[in-house]
Amino acid sequence: MDETEDLKERLVSLRLEHRELDDEIERILTETPSDQIQIQRLKKRKLMLKDEITKLESNLLPDIIA
Known about the structure:
Strand content: under 5%
Number of strands: 0
Oligomer: single chain
Number of domains: 1
Number of helices: 2
Structural class: mainly alpha
């Protein structure tokens, strides 16, 4: 498997985890009372995943010189 395929697989995995965190955050928010510290941690993790997803996507796109 080449590097591009590895990056694509990692990207799929990160997107899945990002969606799962979204679902988890929504579930916790519906609880009364909700655990704000846990929500904050999940949102921080979600943001880190989004940053990594963006980085991988930019690595997969060819460099375009304007």
